[in-house]
Design goal:
The chain is of the alpha+beta class. It contains 15 helices and 13 strands. The chain has three domains: 209 residues, no CATH class; 37 residues, no CATH class; 151 residues, no CATH class. The strands form four sheets. The protein has a four-stranded mixed sheet with strand order 1-2-4-3. A four-stranded antiparallel sheet has the order 8-7-12-13. Helix 3 packs across helix 4 and helix 14 packs antiparallel against helix 15. The N terminus is likely disordered. The structure holds heme C (5 copies). The site of one heme C has 22 residues, from helix 2, helix 3, helix 8, strand 2 and strand 4.
Length: 434
Amino acid sequence: MASFMRSPAGNALFAVTRQTLTGPKYDRQPMKRQIWMAVTLMVIGMMLTAASVDPGLPAGYWDEPQASSGGPPHNWSQLETDLRPESCAQCHSEQFNSWKKSLHAHAYSPGLVGQFPNMGHAEANSCLQCHAPLKEQLYTGPDAMEKSITLRLKHPQGFSEDADLESPVLPLAHSGVSCAVCHVRTWQRFGPPPKSTGAVGKVEGAAHGGFTATRAFKSSQFCASCHQFPQSMAINGKPLENTLNEWKESSFSEGGITCQQCHMPDRKHEFRGIHDPEMVRKGLAFKLTQSNTSARLTITSKWIGHAFPTYVTPKVIVLADALDRDGKSLRSWQWDIIREIEYDNGWQEKRDTRLMPGESRAFSAADIPAAATSVRYRVLVQPDHFYKGTYSDLLSGDMEPDAKAHIQKASKLAAANEYILFEKSVKRVGSSSP
Ligand code: HEC
Ligand code: HEC
Ligand code: HEC
Ligand code: HEC
Ligand code: HEC
């Protein structure tokens, strides 16, 4: 199979979150005395407006995003002009300490960069549109790409986990979906309205010239540029990533429960998902029941704002075993929860058995053999199921040595990510064994 999702991004993807900035522009022209008063009043008026009108995100926030441009504001300290997450951490340690454990911080991953030498830098940049999208993160040419891929092997961490500013300075791409990706454009900081005041618009602050507060950060749409493909890329009616649409069709959207409320509780930068067993358990309810000849596990999606799982890469396996008194399996059953796709002259959907928000499904083991004394249910999660196949395909072909080293690493990581989500046995009704 070809590498996963070649050039899926396309420009249309980034037209999604465009909004217009209507905030004030501060005029620094010298002014005549007689109009001083009028201008002062006007400025006060503008500031009052700014405090009540939400400016939204600047137009094209996700369209070729750039965190810096030209020289930095002349009166800023070196720390304020440093875009690395280690630098933000000096003042925002709480966000840094959560974010550094999230997959966003590790999006410049071995499984990603190991595929790049086969593609060339231009196509690799199309992948970076979600994995490290700032202009400051994209490759300027083939040499920059090769250098970065080699450097990534030497420094498996894309940044200093202790926020040590003296650590070797790595390319900003290595910190993946970094702080500046979501918060900085042309040097300015953008964030949600402060919890204390709820103010929107330009907010003064003790560093980096304050910031612009907008409720756009609280909207599910904020996550769409990377977690929702355009409808034009649909396979069997649904894009490979369809998370925002799935959310819109769920009762969570109606109830105003956004992506952030589940994935950033209390504004914590956790972004926990299917790689985190505790998060997945929070989303599901399990109920195991039985009769003389059958057993059934009912799984309900109770707190997941999209399909379980939302992406095409994980696989969830439900297994049941009828066991005899020695624990030997006499009969077994298996069901898969997956949206399975296959590349065959374009992407095809083979099946979609995912659990939709609110859905309950029973997995029934019927006709249990007479000698069975118990039935055991297990639910296995393989978060990177699809990629495991991609990696073994790649490794079976010719690979450049650095790329191969990355993919070997990715392959091990993918296997190590698998876990048992649920395991429970019930004694068979009427069975005489202890
Ligand atoms: C020298 C300290 C300092 C550094 C370095 C710094 N900040 Fe800030 N930041 C502040 C202060 C002070 C505020 C004002 C509000 C507050 O107290 O949180 C602020 C506010 C913000 C806000 C708005 C918070 C809100 O309520 O919406 C964001 C977003 C932000 N910073 C992002 C960043 C990012 C991203 C970086 C690194 C590229 C960074 N900051 C570096 C001190 C700093
Ligand atoms: C539209 C945004 C987007 C684009 C473009 C994109 N990805 Fe991803 N990618 C994601 C998201 C989101 C995930 C996480 C999926 C999940 O777990 O839900 C991901 C996960 C991955 C993973 C598994 C996790 C890891 O980092 O090891 C690999 C490998 C990967 N992508 C490779 C690629 C490659 C190669 C390209 C370019 C051909 C690409 N991606 C383009 C959004 C994107
Ligand atoms: C994937 C996008 C994303 C990344 C990456 C990200 N943030 Fe945020 N950040 C957000 C969103 C969205 C909110 C608002 C959440 C809400 O209001 O529920 C936010 C809120 C904040 C706030 C305001 C917190 C508060 O309690 O008021 C600060 C400060 C901040 N982020 C700093 C950072 C720093 C520093 C980093 C890197 C260590 C970072 N962010 C990485 C999306 C991001
Ligand atoms: C700039 C692109 C971008 C934005 C914006 C973004 N994400 Fe992500 N997100 C990614 C990528 C890429 C990954 C996969 C990282 C990896 O594993 O390589 C990811 C991974 C995740 C995961 C972990 C998935 C798993 O498999 O466990 C969650 C949860 C998540 N994002 C939620 C959010 C939420 C909520 C928002 C909005 C507040 C958001 N993201 C905004 C690019 C983005
Ligand atoms: C009601 C809570 C809730 C809401 C709302 C929600 N999620 Fe999730 N999300 C979860 C839970 C729980 C999981 C873990 C189970 C799973 O993987 O589906 C998860 C998993 C994920 C994953 C992991 C990958 C995968 O294939 O499942 C991503 C990515 C993600 N969410 C993104 C988002 C985005 C983007 C939004 C908003 C459009 C959102 N989520 C809304 C609860 C929620």
